[in-house]
Protein: TonB-dependent receptor
Organism: Henriciella barbarensis
Amino acid sequence: MRKISLATLLCMSTAVTCFSAAYAQTADDNEPESAAPEPASDFVQNVVVVTAQRRSQSLAEVPMSITAVSGERLEEVGVSDVSDLVKVTPGLSAVESGAGVPVYSLRGVGFFDTSIGARPTVSVYLDEVPLPFSVMTSGTSFDLQRVEVLKGPQGTLFGQNSTGGAINYIANRPTDSFEAGVTLDYSSFDRIQSEGFISGPVNDALRMRLAVRGDNGGAWQESYTRDDEHGERRFWQGRFTADLDVTDNFDLSFTLSGFKDESDVQASQLSSVLLQRPVAAGAVPLLINYPLAPEDARAADWNDAGFPLRRDNEFYQAALRANWELTDNLSIISLTSYADLDLHQRADLDATSLPAVFTENMGTATSFAQEVRLVGDYDRSNWVVGLSYADDDTTQIDDYQIPYTTGASAIPTGPFTRFFLDTEQDFKTTAVFGNYERDLTDTLTGSVGLRYTQADLDYAACSRVGNQETANTLTAFFNILRGPSRPLPAPLAVGDCLTVDGTVTPGQVTGELNEDSLAWRVNLSWSPADRVMVYGNVSQGYKSGSGPVLPALAANQLSPVVQESVLAYEVGARSPLIGDWLDASGAVFFYNYEDKQLKSRTQVEPAVLGALEGIVNVPESEILGVEFQLNARPMPGLDLSLTATHINSEVTSDFEGYTITAALANFQGESFPYTPENQLMADARYSWNINDNLSAFVATTINYRSETTAGFGRLPVLDIDAYTLVDLQGGVNVSDGDWKIVGYVRNLTDEYYWNNVARLNDTTRRFAGMPRTYGIRVSKTF
């Protein structure tokens, strides 16, 4: 693939450069020397002001692929959590994991891990403060000024190392004058979302803002075998911010944010019965004959084992930002944060009402982070150097009950029906980074960035015996494997570690992983005319190694994987095409992906245990992609946008692994899971004034994603079909925006779709997207 990829990249790069150069020549010939007027609408994204490079710039001035969306736009299209950003971000994918842990990938770079301590390939921040674990990101998407999604390896300007990209939420700040607002949203299934804020000065130096939000109701899932419903939301979040001007050149900003989540865990849909041990089919006759879920988004099934299948999760984060302007050109920025998460949730993992697979997850995650940056900003150059330190700790205990499965009889000495996963991890990361940018000429700018990171992981893990019958079964089985001359010193008891090493000795697995990396970025951009830019980036990013968090019978299931890296090449351009009403932007990118981290089956020791789940590294892969966007305002009030993304991902090296059916296969030549080849987004919005005090708008959004898969092996049961979603919105603003009333329809055509497929034990299950919903939202500002 490499020769074809590089040739294609060169051709596309030339095309991207040519259309910008052509416009630049036209602009030079026909435009006066004064700057061209900006488009009249913020809907045309080039006028959005972003801080992706740690200073305020128009989006048209940023030499990288970035999606920036205003808070008003996010509210209009219904973005209420990070997963909803797929509605507005080309190349972003988000899947439901079934474990309450969202999983993101950007341009095909992702890591599907559902543990509390999952360290994503796409870093998420709130006002540059890191949220190191995906499960911590649930409470970010409200009361926002905007969100910026940076694509490609990151880490030389601020924050953490990442291979896929970064998502930075910028919250609304305290205001210089009193402001307040309330919003009430009522939608299908009696879901009620309410939000409010109050903001203003306490005195000349101190300003404060408090924002709160609640999301309740909406039990949208129905059992298709009995009279029961599920899927209710019980989610509350809040954020308090205080800005203090200590002196004319020194200010502080304190933020305290958090959420409480008692929502139901999404129930899944039974898509096939795929027995783990077909020879034991006689043990599960009800499962073999269980009806598959109909193609209806609301249809699902579950067994609560006598407990509600819901979350009881709490999170808070405190952050302090200090800005000290040493001179007109030099400043010091300090970011200090502490985050704490407590998680407790229960889930059914077989998609039936039978007592097949039930889990209870409990855990904690804490994070302390400190970053200090020295920033220089001059007429023709700017630079930043910084130090960062993070100490992240997680614990996780998962209780698995599998009484009605063929796996329960997998051990010949008796039933194996209940066990616990018990894991502790301590991540410590230290980094030094810097970036230098300079205007080489009036039209040519170059920059270079470096980041050296030392990442240290200490971990301890094992699976533990969950009940006495499992203890008896494993004691007898291990004694057979050890032989009559070397029995276990004592029978296993409930709570003992059951994970064994190659000598069939049970015990806790401990270890460490110490790695360093040097990430870098080189950029060159050319701006021959106003609002015209052609840029090229070469960068290398890393994601640190990871310790598996999974039920383990064998010790080497818990062997850590080494860090992954992405060497990225990108050429892009932005330019007006026709006057001020049509803008175009595009990028071509090529990623050389080494040691991609992947959850998969692996052969374990002792060999008699076969191939069991673990985490492995895919030696070499490649991603070739292109993005193109048109923004138009052909007449006053009418805004149009069209975005197309094409991604071709491929495992390029020999990579032998096991499919979900434990069949050995070589995955060379296969595309990445959760990476649709084509994505298309189209938006249209028309607004007009009815009279001096009343304005209105109507809008539609269309999202298309081509088919993909949930795993390697080319198995049809893991297919994720293509789908198209159409949303409509319309509303009125009254009294200069003091009142706003909006009606909306999500998934207008009631498209049945799913974004994930999972197989555990004997069943394969889908996670369906929301059906058609209607709603009305009323807002009042003061």
